[in-house]
């Protein structure tokens, strides 16, 4: 329904219009459009608007599981918790992609936001790489001490990780 599969899609998610959300939550507004769902990312998953969007997604998920005859059926509570977790991830990614106030007191430009996100991603990837190489190094040292027969496999994996 939301057509979101990558973090980059989350960054571009169009949130629900404030006036429509307000109308739904405080007046007698129509609520989320089932054909064009949009979260109110400024609020949590339990706000009336977002709770209704999650209800609609839950209905769709249950309908799909019945239609496709999924082998493993889960409870509504399980699906709801999974949807709420996904919402929280979406909200986090979306917030990270919003313009921030710079040290000079101005709002970041789109280019500044992009640079910040790329720098952040590169830092995260470097940390993951460093952690993997460190773990592999320690595993290989342990394997050497114990003269394990799968040591060449671990050494090959270490060379592969270093090449990438």
Helix and strand arrangement:
Blueprint: H1 7-11, H2 18-26, H3 48-67, H4 76-96, H5 110-146, H6 151-163
Overview of the structural elements:
This protein is mostly helical and 164 residues long. 64% of the residues lie in helices and 0% in strands. It starts with 6 loop residues before the first helix and ends with a helix.
- Spell out the helices and strands N to C: HHHHHH
How many DSSP-defined strands?
0
The rounded Rg comes to 23 Å
DSSP helix fraction: 55-70%
Question: What average pLDDT do the residues reach?
Answer: 89
Main sheet overview? none
Question: Low-confidence parts, pLDDT < 50 over ≥5 residues?
Answer: none
Structural class: mainly alpha
Span between termini:
36 Å
Number of helices: 6
Which geometry do the CA atoms define? Answer: flat
**Strand content range:** under 5%
Task: Give me a quick take on this structure.
With 164 residues, this protein is mainly alpha-helical.
List the main descriptive attributes of the protein structure presented here.
mainly alpha, 164 residues, 6 helices, single chain
């Amino acid at each position: 329904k939301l057509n979101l599969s990558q973090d980059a899609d989350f960054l571009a998610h169009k949130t629900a219009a404030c006036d429509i959300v307000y109308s739904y939550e405080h007046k007698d507004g129509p609520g989320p459009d089932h054909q064009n769902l949009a979260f109110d990312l400024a609020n949590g998953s339990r706000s009336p608007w977002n709770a209704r969007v999650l209800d609609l997604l839950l209905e769709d998920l249950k309908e799909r599981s019945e239609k496709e005859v999924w082998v493993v059926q889960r409870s509504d509570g399980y699906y709801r918790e999974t949807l709420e977790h996904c919402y929280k991830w979406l909200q986090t990614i979306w917030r990270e992609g919003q313009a921030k106030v710079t040290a000079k007191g101005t709002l970041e430009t789109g280019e500044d936001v992009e640079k910040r996100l790329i720098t952040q991603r590169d830092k995260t990837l470097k940390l993951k790489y460093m952690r993997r190489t460190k773990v592999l190094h320690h595993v290989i040292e342990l394997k050497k001490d114990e003269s394990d027969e799968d040591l060449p496999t671990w050494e090959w994996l270490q060379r592969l990780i270093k090449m990438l």
